């Protein structure tokens, strides 16, 4: 049984998707659009929808780099859906644990036990400067804060016993004061007395996702996360991350499943040629000059004269490259594996960046997903459709049925909670 | 034209309301309950529903002193309603302006321009201890922070021009970077660079409510609030507050209407006797011992031997009282005006405390409301029904039609925004 989330982002994860005639560029402030997407995902019996989050906006010329605040969106979406999980990113660097615990707990009540939170430590100085910092605090400090943050949030959720409310009209006793306890937290980062102002969430704890890439991030995920988002360009990269995380989870003494879900950008067609044509149609919408300028920054050379439909000119090896290595390594790998034209390379970078891309018929895509799941590459996927709603409609209507026929994916929801969909137990109250 | 908000709180504003057989005590974690209440209010063409907020919980034995987080509730409720305004309390002491601006702006988009925020500076040490403080910071500091907070929030809302999005597919230009500007705020309390991450709200600025009682609170309201909640036990108290605020508004150089809305606890019956019976039925649900113990704390003497259905024994005058004067003055006033029994006094204190109570037929209540509105007591009312949903159904089905017949209240919504309902103009972009 694999797990599938839909990562909802703007008009789709391909940067030029908004320029497509069929895009919903006009509707990004309209909650009805997101409700419709969530309903498509629910029709496909997906485990959850997921929103990323950030506190800065830039390069608005290029595309819809903004979004409504995800917690408020999910509250609305919860009323337009019935079973699907709802995951919001929450930054432990910018939120405080009391607000986070309360907002997410309330959403778990509102949605009847369908909430998850993806804890991130945030990245950009521009975000920090909206929250009282001159620049982004150091990585280690952020991870220290994240760990204490998670700790406090979990304790706040447990500050009400599951049976704290008595509702005894006859005796006039509404609740049991001794089943609602302060937490008296006084740590390096936070001072929080508790208790929380809302009863224990239906799931006990809304599900904790994490997506750490660094050693600190992986360790935090291994100790704390109940499900993990990954970035894996291909199966070897996925396997290396997967095995590393599973080892860290075991070393942390945990026996719960901790599903790992790499991002997946899928172009689905009734033939392979049709799928490739969809990809090409989007790639052709990329603005040539801006894309070449950006590529020039990634590879640290002038690309403005490069021929769009010719193969990418040879690039120096990773060892000789002085700039940020992560993205450069991805570029070298795409060139080695796919011998792309310049346009194709730009298209790959413009849709999911370092995430895995699959292009083909529903069977071909299902084959690859199955192979990853059976070879320690993934326990499921975080779907990042290049276009929305088209890309998720294609996936739900054509790939999901193939996965279902093969017994790899549920035909019906078997539970009503995100925790249930993911096969996670409900943590007992304290 | 008067304005009416519904202040939604638990099973109603009477402390014993949850014990009534018809109460929704079991449904306080069920968002459907609040959606139903909002729909009743919308059926009555009310201007808005309103949620208070706080960050601590206590005395859970006595009743439902908890609630879901209001911003997430309102996101859900916005999808179950179409025209009614949606007001959430937001504490400027515990939120940061970037989070507040973003959450409320998103809600204004989600609701299509129906959001308002009631800015409060918060009160209790127990709340402060959930947000990193050892105790509540001083009153003046909190009001200084509130003023800077409002300033930053408004500037963040204005950081996007109304026409910042171009959506030019053909040219590949999504937005106009020069119409989205940082705010570079660096003040005593906050460092916020901006811009906000969401486009300018449909209303320009979601409507700012305030409810200050102190001189600082009144001044802030006069300078900044677009509508004001008040506490007024009777018409003279309402007039004194009303005239004082209107004077301060004029002195602040403002010409906008700034409607003032005192709280109103109404018991509605088809006869006056029926209304009084409803009140008495609730008062009889008050737990005798706990209520007398609490009264003992308010008046600083032992009340445990007081006879419930006898008149309240004589109390020392205000000048001789050593404890907190506000509530004691209210108690003396209730005794003077109504010569209540002990049970009746407890009932008055248990439903809205110092807020105005009206008991009678729809016509009697409409008469009093009309009198207040025509004599500088109020521009509208913040309805605090003793029971929910019963108390608001009574009001909407019986009092609202009388107000409508007299031309005092709208028969249909004439606009789609809270700003429109309140007769406030839309602030132009900067
Ligand atoms: C699928 C996915 C979603 C992510 N969403 C966010 C997000 O919404 N906000 C954010 O600041 N970071 C997000 N990240 C980034 C990670 O949380 C993390 O910061 C990044 O992987 C770098 O890890 P490190 O800090 O351990 O080096 C996401 C990563 C992945 C793979
Ligand atoms: C109708 C109404 C609603 C209020 N809601 C809240 C609230 O939700 N949270 C809160 O902390 N204070 C709330 N208050 C309290 C006021 O904002 C304010 O703190 C109080 O009137 C004392 O004013 P002062 O601080 O100027 O002395 C409310 C007051 C009124 C009249």
TrEMBL record, chains A, B:
<dbReference type="InterPro" id="IPR016215">
    <property type="entry name" value="NTA_MOA"/>
</dbReference>
<keyword id="KW-0560">Oxidoreductase</keyword>
<keyword id="KW-0503">Monooxygenase</keyword>
<dbReference type="Pfam" id="PF00296">
    <property type="entry name" value="Bac_luciferase"/>
</dbReference>
<dbReference type="InterPro" id="IPR011251">
    <property type="entry name" value="Luciferase-like_dom"/>
</dbReference>
<feature type="domain" description="Luciferase-like">
    <location>
        <begin position="16"/>
        <end position="377"/>
    </location>
</feature>
<dbReference type="InterPro" id="IPR051260">
    <property type="entry name" value="Diverse_substr_monoxygenases"/>
</dbReference>
<keyword id="KW-0288">FMN</keyword>
<keyword id="KW-0285">Flavoprotein</keyword>
<protein>
    <submittedName>
        <fullName>LLM class flavin-dependent oxidoreductase</fullName>
        <ecNumber>1.-.-.-</ecNumber>
    </submittedName>
</protein>
<dbReference type="GO" id="GO:0016491">
    <property type="term" value="F:oxidoreductase activity"/>
</dbReference>
